[in-house]
Design brief:
Length: 153
């Protein structure tokens, strides 16, 4: 008797079960990888914005502004030109080309509105917006992979 070549139904079901098992293991790993990359983007954006706020503050202090008046009134001000008052300057300074976006925010929001703003007079644990921008934070209610809420980064 001549037996046909090929796979039996049982062999195909076993292979499909193994593929499903491997897929169910790989999906959480892929989700963690995406989360980790978004967190990396968030850290970079926070660093860039905070560095720009500090540069703006320093430039305004050199121009004679004091206290809260030396901080930007909004994030868009970080992209606007400031007079360069350094010796030999005479041009303009720009501290940011564009405001980075919070990677956890709604993609339909403009980048400036994707951040929570903290004024000079508010506490870090209870940030409130004010007449100037002293710090920024993520508006996302999510927690990072380290367990810390993204708002506290």
């Amino acid at each position: 008797m001549h037996r046909g070549r090929g796979y039996t139904l049982i062999e195909l079901l076993v292979v499909l079960a193994l593929i499903a098992l491997l897929g169910s293991i790989a999906m959480p790993l892929a989700e963690v990888t995406v989360q980790r990359e978004k967190e990396r983007e968030l850290k970079r954006a926070l660093w860039e914005l905070r560095d720009a706020i500090d540069a703006y503050h320093l430039a305004r202090q050199r121009m004679g502004a004091e206290g809260a008046a030396s901080y930007p009134p909004n994030l868009e001000a970080l992209t606007q030109p400031l007079p360069d008052v350094r010796p030999g300057g005479g041009g303009v300074l720009r501290v940011l080309r564009q405001v980075p976006r919070d990677p956890f925010a709604d993609p339909l929001l403009p980048a400036e509105q994707s951040w929570g703003l903290r004024s000079y007079l508010s506490e870090s644990k209870e940030p409130r917006a004010g007449a100037e921008v002293y710090d920024v934070y993520s508006l996302s209610p999510a927690r990072g992979l380290n367990g810390v809420p993204l708002k506290e980064w």
